Amino acid sequence: MVESFSPKNIIVTGGCGFIGSNFVHYVVNNHPETHVTVLDKLTYAGNPENIAGLPSDRVELVVGDICDAGLLDRIVPGHDAIVHYAAESHNDNSIADPEPFLKTNVEGTYRLLEACRKYDVRYHHISTDEVYGDLALDDPARFTESTPYHPSSPYSSTKAASDLLVRAWTRTYGLRTTISNCSNNYGPFQHVEKFIPRQITNILTGVRPKLYGEGLNVRDWIHTEDHSSAVWTILTRGRIGETYLIGADGERNNITVLRMILEMMGKDSDDFDHVRDRPGHDRRYAIDATKLRTELGWTPAHTDFADGLKATIDWYAEHRQWWEKTKERTEARYKAQGQ
Ligand code: NAD
Ligand code: TDX
């Protein structure tokens, strides 16, 4: 039987980042009975503007590090659940400097699990399809909950390590946990280091988009609002101890997505540069979300990728002040890496 859980006070770690802040908006808009404490360190990827304007009686921001056990002792008691989004999240950064990934993704998860154990708090772990490694381009298979772990990058290996900690704490200490592994998100508030916002903001600043290698790598795109509704579904109705894969049947290769962006923005579809490929670049991710759909009845609302992409382009065009400063720093770093 499916459990039912109605959290009144939740902590959302990483709630000033891309997906975490979209989840905070989702909770505020759809679940008026739930108060959110955002715990965020405000790294280069965290921006308090992402949650600015939300009612102060619904959302509180605590600026701090998930690795800080003393801080967790002060804020975790009194909460019913932690939804853990905070992470170092960018593969290219993990290749340039893996250390912060070990610290935040592995030690940070450990600290949160220990706090949940100490204060008997329900825990939902946000993970990624990248823990499964990649699929060959001509392989018809998709990832399922029973696919063996086979991560490729420093980023995905630290996410895999954090998933395994969650499983161990569940079995050994009886912690009330669930894990979700989602595919590539797109939508508003995504950092300009990531593929889709990087290309949109390149075009908006008169720079040619940059495609790694031949661009044949496939990603399985999901709108971040659909990720939010799936996480809420799993948090409130998921079976304790279970893993659910989240995806919306959005497989496309990078060159196709890039050409869609160029055409939607009135450019020639060949108006981009091929740049140095990412070392160890995963070829294809693909999610089979049958378990989430059939067991918990979840369905995505954003089923037209072209519509979602157009709305995302419009959002970046209308929010230049949100990304302009970060853009310069990000492109300087990419330039130094030959990308
Ligand atoms: P992001 O980089 O945009 O945001 C990460 C947030 O975590 C930032 O606000 C940052 O300040 C915060 N943070 C980092 N280190 C912290 C620390 N030590 N203590 C407290 N806060 C800290 O990331 P995102 O793309 O929104 O990803 C969020 C989560 O979703 C991650 O766990 C990621 O692995 C997972 N995920 C991402 C995708 C995707 O497509 N982006 C897909 C599947 C899963
Ligand atoms: O400029 C670029 N050109 C390019 O061709 C960038 C930044 C990326 N790419 C390619 C690499 C990937 O094949 O585009 C694809 C998507 O790249 P990213 O946006 O960096 O995402 P990815 O590496 O697939 O990982 C994302 O999805 C899974 C998130 O960043 C992870 O946090 C999540 O776990």
From TrEMBL:
SUPFAM superfamilies, A to Z: NAD(P)-binding Rossmann-fold domains
Catalytic activity: dTDP-alpha-D-glucose = dTDP-4-dehydro-6-deoxy-alpha-D-glucose + H2O
Domain of life the protein comes from: Bacteria
UniProt entry keywords in alphabetical sequence: Lyase, NAD
Residue ranges of every copy of the NAD(P)-binding domain listed in the record: 11-310
InterPro entries given in the database record: dTDP_Gluc_deHydtase (IPR005888), NAD(P)-bd_dom (IPR016040), NAD(P)-bd_dom_sf (IPR036291)
Cofactor(s) it depends on: NAD(+)
GO MF annotations, alphabetized: dTDP-glucose 4,6-dehydratase activity
E.C. code: 4.2.1.46
Gene Ontology terms: biological process: nucleotide-sugar metabolic process
Family listed: Belongs to the NAD(P)-dependent epimerase/dehydratase family. dTDP-glucose dehydratase subfamily.
Protein name per Swiss-Prot or TrEMBL: dTDP-glucose 4,6-dehydratase
Phylogenetic classification of the source organism: Bacteria, Bacillati, Actinomycetota, Actinomycetes, Bifidobacteriales
